[in-house]
Specification:
The chain has 124 residues and is mainly beta. Helices cover 0% and strands 48% of the residues. The strands form 2 sheets. Strands 2, 4, 5, 6, 9, 10 and 11 form a 7-stranded mixed beta sheet that branches. Strands 1-3-8-7 form a 4-stranded antiparallel beta sheet, with no helix packed on it. It is globular and about 40 Å long.
């Protein structure tokens, strides 16, 4: 069993930055590919970014390329999402998720665990 706990969300003005963190319990964190997803009420959940178990492969959805950076620290069982140049359309609940796989993923198919989410609000 793996538990994922997100933190770092909040209210920020457009153009600002936030860093989300996801702390994972358990000893097998390094065996999981990790990702960040987001969802706006009434809309489908979308993948934001994902990172392979070693950090060697990374995926970003087009809308965040050049603005967001995903990283992980396996020694700290933590995955991060650095969000810069935030836009009002980035407003959403952001979720951390894991898949027991060596490979990076590009969708929410087959995810093993989810966090409860952290709200990011970007004001214009």
């Amino acid at each position: 069993q793996v538990q994922l706990v997100e933190s770092g969300g909040g209210l920020v003005q457009a153009g600002g930055s936030l860093r989300l963190s996801c702390l994972a319990s358990g000893r097998t964190f390094s065996s999981y590919a990790m990702g960040w997803f987001r969802q706006v009420p009434g809309k489908e959940r979308e993948i934001v970014a994902a990172i392979s178990w070693t950090g060697g492969s990374i995926y970003y959805t087009d809308s965040v390329k050049g603005r967001f950076t995903i990283s992980r620290d396996n020694a700290k069982n933590t995955v991060y999402l650095q969000m810069n140049s935030l836009k009002p359309e980035d407003t959403a609940v952001y979720y951390c998720a894991s898949r027991r796989s060596k490979l990076v993923f590009t969708s929410d198919y087959g995810m093993d665990y989810w966090g409860k989410g952290t709200l990011v609000t970007v004001s214009s």
